[in-house]
């Protein structure tokens, strides 16, 4: 057991443990471990089908319970008036451990099914009732609408008649002929009336038109209010239609079409009095029905309210139980089926805590047989587990989304805590903007507890998760803002400027006193300000970049020591370091030297460092005296170039050579490599097994057989090293150039904030009239909004992404190995958060 | 060239459909499914596949028809998604796929009405891909003429029906004739439409459709033995495409028993194997020809399905063509048939026949 203090530098030390759990306490043990959330169980029967495992029956039962809770949830959600659902933390917990656990679950099961059947019956009766209400409502509509139609026909008889006279409609004309015309008030024409879904009206009309061979006299009106299906909440809109026709065959045909198109047909009498009677009756029945419906609705609602009180607890229990049984399915039965055997990864540090939990579980369940835990020796790679707190969590997540680091590898997430916000701030440097995001972060941190509980939505949730990153970014941005002397594109005069402008001249005179911290405010507004800051920020980003890469490269060393690959230090680390330093380290030194020289007093003009670097490659050893930075430059550069040149073959050849020598030594000593690693593994395995048989089969991991044995082929080493060399050498150049994004983003940010200021507030800050004040108000509002929206959010996001890239690509490529798999412990808390 | 521009309009959908395709159940998953003891096991097993929790909210006990219905619903949803995102001419192509379901639905409704089944029950049994607006009104018609005039004239199927207006009264034989005439017209139309779509689609689709046509031709021949269908009528029902056309079709039109059918199919090497066992069994037990023909036909049917699956799988080997959409729908349909079969076998405890499904991948 290691006693070192938990740190983020390396992932937690893990142990593989074996648990012997008596069947009686298995459930409670897993429950306890799930509450603890510190144990990752291994699947001991990977070849067994999910439905052939031991606890399928329980899982199936719990699935059914889960379905019931989902049904309740859906019902509650569908209810129009909100049904209060008591949140989980306000409910009394339902105990599912201890000796009575089985009964509790049984009771819960019966309660759930009782509620379900009750609710289903209520739903059904509600459904039938609303169905009948709907029918009656439709009937009422049909009666009313047809009445309107008949009334209209009465008053317009003359019109109808004249129009029928010259009408070409054969059916009506023939009718007209036979009956000898209409007399007002006597309608002998037969008709079909009913309701149909509005979307179907055109099709209905078309089909009827064709079926009746063009002799269609149809009238339809919309029903204003929609009908709502109580079970699905779907809205349907319907139309009342009335079709006039004559002849039984035709009428039967119309009815059939109407029925097949989903219309409802109502018997309507042609007599106005009878219609009025029918309407009255329908209205009476409707009223009765609505009372009953209302009462049923109330009954259903009260049932739902009762369910809502404990629904969350049920859901919680069901979820936990399901998780427990799924975990139990990973276990193995021993021969006599008395105990379950489990294997799990646990952090070595927490072994005692887990022992305690196991004892607690035994006490809870009221039995005297405790589960037995013992550690196993294994050659398997344990999962990677970084113990984070709420501050480091976000930074670790940034690195984990690039890749999970190998077990016990140096963790870049630790260093990201400072480097990440710093590189961000180099791009985002502005006191004001930094302050804004700082305030946002501080607000989120102060309201942490309240915000953690509520559902923040996707976007706010993301920001909330990264609140400590934002806090650090804000602090660092304020710091770099001071360095750049930038406050919403204005400057601060904290100290006396080192420059004076005598007699309104535009040429500054140096007073001989240096501005103590950050950029001299005199540069602000100077005509050559941009030239100066560009050169300054560009060089600074190269310096920072080389420092960051050198640091990342150094992180290899502890890895090489930890994984016992000392030869890698002089086959990989040293040549890489020399290569980087002899080219770019030298460039950084030149930059620093150039900054330290007062070029106004120098006889030569300042040389361009970029050209210097290019000529260093193109014409090694030759330096134009005009452009010389220091004496002896040519020789130094030639030596450095030589070192860099030597490093390439060194890096390329030394590691494969060592591997080859090693191989030669083993074959020379008379050993022969077996065809593949597997055979040896199998051979060893079988001897192991016989041994184990004698030793009663204790102390060996059950699921050990599937370990992959990677064949370290010589060819692989060669290819890998070639790729690595090319990648590193080209990477050095492109990555250094890549750090120039620090300059570009910082420049863009400064320029953007300056443009925003000049376009909104410039010249308005001292209003003289009321109009001026109003203008200031509007513009100030605009400026504030754009500052937050564009400069802080959008620019911040872009700077964030670039900082992310610098860490993932430029930083991690120098040392990160990755390939680990995350520690995923059984935990009830985590599951709760996801849902 | 098609490779250059195909993805502009159809790249997304092809990606989607290939993604869907990788969700089709594999041999392994079928092996797991066939081991299930109950339908609940079946559901648990399916939830580990691409079907996911599609049955999670169904209350127990499950029925095979629910499984089939829900699985079809998934296919329909996927198809509608594809269709909603498609542009011409893919849109038209997808529409053509639905025509075959429309034909099936129409025939189902007419037959149902003839036997005086309940209209609503019939409507529920219709395939959701082939539903069209005025479909319910089909129940009213009593003659083909009326059918055409009142409903079909406004559907895209109208041209296909034009050829069979001569049949006056609707009886079972006539409906069968109508179905085959319409299907023949549909296949020919689809075939020529695919011809307008340019090279890779044309290639893949015409191969699949040719097989479909041959299958119909052989089926019609086999099923018309000992019926009142005359040989001239039979010949009229054969699609004029396919690999058997024209010589094979001519021979089939004159065929009187299954041996002559086999002889007609000799020219196409792929079809030769279909009749191998069938021929042997028919010659070995000549006495009870009726039952034996039935067995041979069902075996033939099975082989046709296998061939269809094979051809549809082939369609996925080529990129930049529409064949994948057609093939996906057909494969998924086969998968649903398989699922239903397995579920049915589980439900009826007929474990010995559970392996009789057609594996896809």
From TrEMBL, chain A:
Q: Where in the cell is it found?
A: Membrane
Question: In the UniProt record, does the keyword Signal occur?
Answer: no
Membrane-spanning parts: 422-445, 465-484, 540-557, 578-596, 634-653, 770-794
Tell me the GO BP annotations in alphabetical order: vacuolar acidification
Top-level taxon: Eukaryota
Pfam families reported for this sequence: V_ATPase_I (PF01496)
Q: What cellular component GO annotations does this protein have?
A: fungal-type vacuole membrane; vacuolar proton-transporting V-type ATPase, V0 domain
Q: Which residues form a coiled coil?
A: 105-132
Role, per record: Essential component of the vacuolar proton pump (V-ATPase), a multimeric enzyme that catalyzes the translocation of protons across the membranes. Required for assembly and activity of the V-ATPase.
Q: What is this protein called?
A: V-type proton ATPase subunit a
The organism's lineage? Eukaryota, Fungi, Dikarya, Basidiomycota, Agaricomycotina
TrEMBL record, chain B:
A single GO CC term for this protein reads: proton-transporting V-type ATPase, V0 domain
Entry coiled-coil feature ranges:
none
GO MF, any single term: proton-transporting ATPase activity, rotational mechanism
| Keywords linked to the UniProt accession | Hydrogen ion transport, Ion transport, Transport
Q: Which InterPro entries does the protein's record reference?
A: ATPase_csu/dsu_sf, ATPase_V0-cplx_csu/dsu, ATPase_V0-cplx_dsu, V-type_ATPase_csu/dsu, V-type_ATPase_csu/dsu_dom_3
Its job = Subunit of the integral membrane V0 complex of vacuolar ATPase. Vacuolar ATPase is responsible for acidifying a variety of intracellular compartments in eukaryotic cells, thus providing most of the energy required for transport processes in the vacuolar system.
Give the quaternary structure: V-ATPase is a heteromultimeric enzyme composed of a peripheral catalytic V1 complex (components A to H) attached to an integral membrane V0 proton pore complex (components: a, c, c', c'', d, e, f and VOA1).
The entry sums up its family as follows:
Belongs to the V-ATPase V0D/AC39 subunit family.
Q: What is this protein called?
A: V-type proton ATPase subunit
Source organism per entry reads Ephemerocybe angulata
């Amino acid at each position: 057991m290691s006693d070192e203090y938990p740190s983020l530098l390396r992932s937690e030390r893990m142990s593989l443990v074996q648990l012997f759990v008596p069947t009686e306490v298995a459930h409670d043990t897993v429950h306890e471990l799930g509450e603890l959330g510190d144990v990752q169980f291994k699947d001991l029967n990977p070849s067994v089908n999910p439905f052939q495992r031991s606890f399928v029956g329980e899982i199936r039962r719990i699935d059914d319970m889960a379905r019931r809770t989902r049904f309740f949830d859906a019902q509650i959600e569908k209810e129009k008036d909100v049904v209060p659902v008591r949140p989980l933390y306000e409910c009394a917990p339902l105990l599912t451990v201890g000796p009575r656990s089985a009964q509790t679950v049984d009771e819960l099961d019966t309660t759930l099914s009782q509620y379900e059947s009750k609710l289903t019956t209520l739903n059904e009766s509600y459904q039938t009732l609303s169905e009948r209400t709907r029918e009656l409502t439709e009937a009422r509509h049909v009666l009313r609408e047809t009445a309107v139609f008949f009334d209209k026909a009465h008053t317009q008889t003359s019109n109808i008649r004249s129009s029928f006279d010259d009408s070409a409609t054969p059916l009506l004309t023939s009718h007209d002929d036979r009956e000898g015309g209409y007399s007002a008030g006597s309608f002998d024409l037969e008709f079909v009336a009913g309701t149909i879904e509005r979307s179907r009206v055109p099709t209905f009309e078309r089909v009827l038109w064709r079926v009746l061979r063009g002799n269609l006299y149809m009238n339809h009106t919309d029903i204003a209010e929609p009908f709502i299906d109580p079970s699905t909440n779907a809205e349907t809109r319907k139309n009342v239609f009335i079709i006039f026709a004559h002849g039984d065959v035709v009428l039967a045909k119309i009815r059939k079409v109407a029925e097949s198109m989903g219309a409802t047909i109502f018997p309507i009498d042609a007599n106005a009095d009878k219609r009025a009677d029918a309407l009255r009756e329908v209205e009476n029945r409707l009223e009765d029905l609505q009372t009953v419906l209302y009462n049923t609705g109330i009954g259903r609602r009260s049932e739902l309210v009762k369910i809502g009180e404990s629904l969350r607890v049920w859901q919680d229990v069901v979820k936990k139980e399901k998780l427990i049984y799924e975990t139990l399915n990973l276990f193995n039965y021993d021969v006599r089926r008395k105990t379950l055997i489990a294997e799990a990864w646990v952090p070595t540090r927490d072994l005692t805590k887990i022992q305690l939990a196991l004892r607690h579980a035994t006490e809870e369940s009221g039995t005297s047989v405790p589960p037995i835990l013992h550690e196993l020796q294994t050659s398997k790679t344990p999962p990677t587990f970084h113990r984070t707190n709420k501050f480091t969590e976000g930074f670790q997540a940034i690195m984990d989304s690039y890749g999970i680091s190998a077990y016990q590898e140096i963790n870049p997430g630790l260093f990201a805590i400072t480097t990440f916000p710093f590189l961000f701030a180099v791009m985002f440097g502005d006191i004001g903007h930094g302050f804004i995001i700082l305030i946002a972060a501080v607000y989120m941190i102060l309201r942490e507890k309240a915000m953690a509980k509520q559902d923040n939505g996707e976007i706010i949730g993301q920001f909330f998760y990264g609140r400590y990153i934002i806090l650090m970014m804000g602090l660092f941005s304020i710091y770099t803002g001071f360095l750049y002397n930038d406050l919403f594109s204005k400057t601060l005069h904290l100290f006396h400027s080192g420059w004076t402008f005598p007699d309104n001249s535009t040429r500054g005179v140096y007073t001989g006193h240096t501005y103590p911290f950050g950029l001299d405010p005199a540069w602000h507004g100077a005509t050559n300000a941009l030239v100066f800051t560009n050169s300054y920020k560009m060089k600074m980003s190269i310096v920072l970049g080389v420092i960051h890469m050198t640091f990342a490269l150094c992180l290899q060393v502890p890895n090489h020591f930890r994984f016992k690959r000392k030869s890698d230090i002089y086959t990989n680390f040293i040549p890489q370091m020399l290569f980087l330093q002899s080219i770019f380290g030298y460039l950084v030194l030149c930059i620093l030297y150039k900054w330290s020289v007062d070029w106004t007093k120098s006889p030569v003009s300042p040389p361009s460092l970029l050209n210097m670097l290019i000529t260093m490659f193109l014409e090694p050893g030759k330096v134009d005296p005009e452009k010389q930075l220091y004496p002896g430059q040519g020789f130094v550069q030639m030596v450095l170039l030589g070192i860099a040149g030597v490093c390439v073959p060194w890096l390329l050849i030394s590691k494969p050579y060592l591997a080859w020598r090693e191989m030669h030594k083993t074959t020379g000593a008379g050993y022969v490599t077996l065809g593949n690693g597997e055979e040896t593994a199998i051979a060893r395995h079988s001897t192991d097994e016989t041994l184990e048989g004698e030793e009663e089969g204790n102390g060996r991991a059950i699921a050990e057989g599937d370990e992959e044995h990677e064949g370290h082929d010589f060819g692989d080493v060669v290819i890998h090293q070639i790729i690595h060399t090319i990648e590193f050498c080209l990477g050095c150049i492109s990555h250094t150039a890549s750090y120039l994004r620090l300059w570009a983003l910082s420049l863009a940010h400064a320029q953007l904030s300056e443009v925003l200021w000049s376009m909104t507030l410039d010249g308005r800050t001292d209003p003289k009239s009321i109009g001026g004040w109003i203008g200031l108000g509007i513009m100030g509002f605009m400026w504030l909004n754009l500052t937050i929206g564009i400069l802080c959010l959008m620019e911040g996001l872009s700077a964030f992404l670039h900082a992310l890239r610098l860490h993932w690509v430029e930083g991690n490529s120098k040392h990160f190995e990755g390939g680990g798999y995350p520690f995923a412990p059984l935990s009830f808390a985590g599951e709760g958060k996801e849902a | 060239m098609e490779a250059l521009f195909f993805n502009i309009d159809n790249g997304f959908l092809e990606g989607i459909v290939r993604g869907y395709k990788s969700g089709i159940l594999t041999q392994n998953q079928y092996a797991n499914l066939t081991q299930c003891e109950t339908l609940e096991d079946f559901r648990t097993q399916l939830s580990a596949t691409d079907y996911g929790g599609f049955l999670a909210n169904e209350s127990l006990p499950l029925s095979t028809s629910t499984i089939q219905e829900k699985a079809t619903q998934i296919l329909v949803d996927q198809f509608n998604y594809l269709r909603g995102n498609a542009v011409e001419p893919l849109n038209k192509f997808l529409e053509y796929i639905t025509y075959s379901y429309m034909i099936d639905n129409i025939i189902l409704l007419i037959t149902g009405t003839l036997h005086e089944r309940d209209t609503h029950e019939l409507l529920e049994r219709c395939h959701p891909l082939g539903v069209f607006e005025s479909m319910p009104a089909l129940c009213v018609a009593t003659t083909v003429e009326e059918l055409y005039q009142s409903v079909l004239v406004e559907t895209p199927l109208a041209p296909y029906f034009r050829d069979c207006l001569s049949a006056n009264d609707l009886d079972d034989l006539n409906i069968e004739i109508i179905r085959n005439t319409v299907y023949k017209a549909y296949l020919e139309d689809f075939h020529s439409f695919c011809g307008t779509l340019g090279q890779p689609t044309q290639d893949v689709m015409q191969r699949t459709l040719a097989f479909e046509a041959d299958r119909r031709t052989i089926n019609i021949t086999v099923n018309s033995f000992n019926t009142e269908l005359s040989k001239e009528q039979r010949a009229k029902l054969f699609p004029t495409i396919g690999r058997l056309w024209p010589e094979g079709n001519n021979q089939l039109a004159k065929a009187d028993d299954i041996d002559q059918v086999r002889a007609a199919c000799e020219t196409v090497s792929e079809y030769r194997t279909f009749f191998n066992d069938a021929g042997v069994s028919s010659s070995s037990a000549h006495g009870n020809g009726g039952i034996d023909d039935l067995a041979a036909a069902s075996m033939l049917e099975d082989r046709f399905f296998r061939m269809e699956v094979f051809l549809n799988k082939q369609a996925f080997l080529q990129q930049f063509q529409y064949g994948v959409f057609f093939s996906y729908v057909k494969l998924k349909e086969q998968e649903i048939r398989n699922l239903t079969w397995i579920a049915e076998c589980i439900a009826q405890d007929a474990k010995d026949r559970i392996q009789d499904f057609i594996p896809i991948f």
